[in-house]
Amino acid sequence: MVHLYEVSLFILNFLRLVSKCSTKVQVASSDNMSQIPRIRSPLARAVYNRIVEDQCQRDDDHHYWYSFNTELLPDYLRQKFIQFDQDKETSDFLENCYEKADWVFTQIGHSITKSILGWFMTPTSINGLLSRGSMFIFSDDQIRMLLGVEDGWKGDNLLDLGAGDGMVTQKMAKYFRRTYATEMSPTMVWRLQRKVTSKILDVNSWNNGNLTYDLIGCLNLLDRCNKPISILHSMRQVLTPGVGRVIVAVVLPFKPYVEQDSKDHIPKEAILLKGHTFEEQTVSLIEDVFKPAMFEVERFTRLPYLCEGDLHHSFYVLSDALFVLKPR
Ligand SMILES: C[S@@+](CC[C@H](N)C(=O)[O-])C[C@H]1O[C@@H](n2cnc3c(N)ncnc32)[C@H](O)[C@@H]1O
């Protein structure tokens, strides 16, 4: 085992050295692409390409992940937009991704297991089983700004719907006395329970009890569930009167895909958004989806939805529109 570790470390350091030299050569003569080393092994080539990509990512502040043209917003929404940037906690998550991607043998093991389990398990459940693919949406500072609360503030009940492995739930849970969650995938429930002290509620009856919630998380769920409109209406019914808020994250451009609970992966309830750009679809979500569900926007932003990567890329990124909603 120690042997394997040492061999992988040696190979990685060697590839890193080669990548550093070749990056310098490319900068010196950018049109002389023949200077890029020819690596025959597909595995070594994948690792080499990833190391080169990581070097570029480390030098990038990724301002475009956060960019939003507020000029395109109607007046009543403009001052509700919060501009964020890549803060230390986000950079730390990325650094952790670069490190994990370096565990070459673990990554190979994951790839093999994934291709076998893929025959009878959903990608979400495989990730849950392998404890891989953790997500990052907001830092501690960012969630506090979105919720408009100070450090040390505590609410009563938090409910996170479609909580996944609990990585994001954890960020919100520290601001609440009690945490509740729902999750469709059994392996994700298992991971969630190990990470967050929360009570898991049934996916079909979470809105039937006597509990009300100060905050309901609906993060990256509306495009992954069968009945997003029903979920929006149900959330409204179980918010604590006066104080209750909903935090919704939606990946744009909007491309719904239901993993479980739908044979053709098409949701039973359709959300149809107007426009193609991030800004157009954000406004359409507010006006054509949240407003009819009797919600108004308190604050909103654009953030990267980051996911731990694999052998080929240290991380993957999608664009999230995030909204804090209050009942109208
Ligand atoms: C894209 S993941 C989002 C996970 C986490 N909220 C995040 O933002 O990283 C969507 C999750 O919702 C779960 N899910 C799908 N439909 C659901 C439903 N009706 N009720 C609860 N969870 C559901 C899936 O199993 C999956 O883990």
In short, what is this structure?
By secondary structure, this protein is an alpha/beta fold. Helices cover 40% and strands 17% of the residues.
What CATH architecture label of the largest domain applies? 3-Layer(aba) Sandwich
Shape: globular
Total count of domains: 2
Number of helices in the DSSP assignment: 11
**CATH class assignment of the largest domain:** Alpha Beta
- Spans with pLDDT under 50 lasting ≥5 residues? 21-34
Strand content: 15-25%
Oligomer state equals single chain
Main sheet: strands, sense, barrel: 8 strands, mixed
The helix/strand series, from N terminus to C terminus, equals HHHHHHEHEHEHEEHEHEE
CATH superfamily of the largest domain: Vaccinia Virus protein VP39
Helical proportion, percent range: 40-55%
Query: What is the total tally of β strands?
Result: 8
The ligands found in this model are: S-adenosylmethionine
Through-space gap between termini = 60 Å
CATH topology of the largest domain: Rossmann fold
Radius of gyration: 22 Å
